[in-house]
Design a protein that fits this description.
By secondary structure, the protein is α+β, with helices and mostly antiparallel strands. The chain contains 5 helices and 8 strands, in the order H-E-E-E-H-E-H-E-E-H-E-E-H. The chain binds 5-S-methyl-1-O-phosphono-5-thio-D-ribulose (MRU) and zinc ion.
């Protein structure tokens, strides 16, 4: 069964909302980023951003529906995001995922490079970890980091190997983050929580260094 017009329009409208919210935060520099919302599981179909668009704007040609092989369901001149395979990996790995968002920010890039040696970034005891749906006291989360392979099937395979249901995100080295959730509301909350944690940690390292330098020079 294929997605109905009503389901498509609902997914496109939700993508518009998420896209404009993230665009206001400058989370799509240089046309980077891609977003998807799942329409159905069996067979898998999801709405995804078209490749190379200015994601700070709305147009009638912003999204298309693709299948489990990341191929357009309808005849169209639009090209799905170059990274559609990664969205497909997320939906196939976690059938409860309903939306998947990808952004490039300075903070997620800095953290991905700083901790690439460990292939993971861990943080503990931050209130915003609850924004990831993890409510345990003094929780510690670990976000995997993969190499930024130019070959997207390779990148998608590497991501498939490291993503877990416990932490809804993966960093790509010097590239960006993929995060997901049960629906667009949850995926947005996860993305905001991750970005807060990355920025907090990077700024904390800077401030700590500044304090150490002042105390050692005085
Ligand atoms: C223009 S830099 C970003 C791209 O290389 C890619 O990483 C990206 O996020 C957007 O690709 P797109 O094909 O528009 O979905
Ligand atoms: Zn990207």
């Amino acid at each position: 069964m294929t997605a109905t017009l009503e389901q498509r329009l609902d997914a496109f409208r939700r993508l518009d909302d998420a896209k404009l919210t993230f665009a206001r935060r400058d989370w799509f520099p240089g046309t980077s980023g891609n977003l998807s919302i799942k329409i159905q599981n069996d067979p898998l179909q999801f709405a995804v951003t078209a490749s190379g668009k200015d994601k700070t704007k709305l147009s009638p040609e912003d999204y298309l529906v693709v299948d489990q092989d990341s191929r357009p369901v309808d005849e169209t001149t639009l090209k799905p995001s170059a990274e559609t395979l990664i969205h497909a990996v997320v939906y196939k790995s976690f059938p409860k995922a309903g939306a998947c968002f990808h952004v490039h920010t300075v903070w997620n890039n800095l953290i991905s490079e700083l901790y690439f040696g460990q292939r993971a970034f861990s943080i503990q005891g931050q209130e915003l970890i609850k924004g990831l749906g993890i409510w345990e006291e003094n929780a510690r989360i670990t976000v995997p980091i993969v190499e930024n392979f130019a070959d997207i099937p390779t990148l998608a395979t590497e991501i498939e190997k490291v993503i877990t249901p416990e932490v809804p995100g993966v960093l790509i080295r010097n590239h960006g983050i993929y995060t997901w959730g049960g629906n667009d509301f949850e995926a947005k909350r996860h993305l905001e929580a991750f970005e807060f944690l990355f920025e907090y940690h990077a700024r904390w390292l800077q401030l700590r260094q500044a304090v150490v330098s002042t105390t050692t020079t005085n």
